[in-house]
Amino acid sequence: MADAEKKKKTDKGDPAGDVKWVRKDLLGLRDLSVAEINLILDTAESFQEVSQRAVKKVPVLRGKTVANLFLEASTRTRISFELAEKRLSADTIGITGSASSMTKGESLLDTAANIEALKVSLIVLRHPSSGAPYRLARHTAAGIVNAGDGINEHPTQALIDMFTMRQEKKTIKGLKVVYIGDILHSRVARSNIWGLTKLGADVIVCGPKTLIPWGIEELGVRVVYDMKKAVRDADVVTLLRIQLERQNETLFPSLREYGSSYGLDSEVFRLAKPDALLMHPGPVNRGVEVESALANSPQSVILKQVTNGIAVRMAVLYLLSGALPND
Ligand code: CP
Predict the structure, then answer these.
(1) The Cα angle at residue 324 between residues 138 and 87, in degrees rounded to 5
(2) Ligand 1 centroid vs 73 CA: distance in angstroms?
(3) Residue nearest to atom 4 of ligand 1 (CA)
(4) Which tens digit of pLDDT belongs to each residue from 123-133?
(5) Domain residue spans in the chain?
(6) Per CATH, is 3-154+307-323 categorized as 3.40.50.1370?
């Protein structure tokens, strides 16, 4: 990107600076500086143009192999990583939990060592345990991309969300961004909180008391339990799914009761700014966290988030590949 364009972004309050990418892994937004986050977002802008070409391919990762190791269910993340890899001309392999030898007792580290022995440059890992990608990154020379680890982080999803906000609102600084739902189990909320607060957004979390982690204010967010108060004058409202698969105890009476208290409908959404964005990382449970018609409304950018996933993941893979030792 030209220096003049970088300067322009600096003037908008989102400095990309002159940072050089040196990390072989993308594990979480907790670890990244403002300049590194902006570098990814700016790089994604450049890659967006590739998806509009007749031949949607660039030779950036030609000769490199990327393994997608998904040990938990995924639709959007897995498909968009695969598309991003193919558009960068990488060779790709996909391994899912049920089809891997981990079902026969092999450890994650041994699985990764075997993948690495096959000269894989980058491993995209989704894992049900928080911290698994960090452990893998310490034990392998391959670059590791965290595609969601337990309830810890989902950095590429947060980068997609920030990219979409920046695309629609021009700058993130000063935006009022509200998260409603199961904050306790949401790696998407955690990654967005790290990223958005660094970029100067005013972040509010909202949901039943049992689904708001104790002490979350220490991350620089405000907690508002009343949904109408939380949504009032918001620039962005993001709904989160109730993650029943991560709940070992009953944290609210029923999904129907959750929906009647914290499901967003048009009447409450009208309290947000007239041009507010409605976001959701997916998968959406229509009629629970959001009214179905609202999810399809012109203010909903849910499918734009999905589309933007390709450019953002291309940017991440491109930057990490540049920091890998030659293989
Ligand atoms: N947003 C997201 O992580 O969706 P998937 O679980 O379908 O990948």
Answers:
(1) 115
(2) 8
(3) 76
(4) 999 999 999 99
(5) 3-154+307-323, 155-305
(6) yes
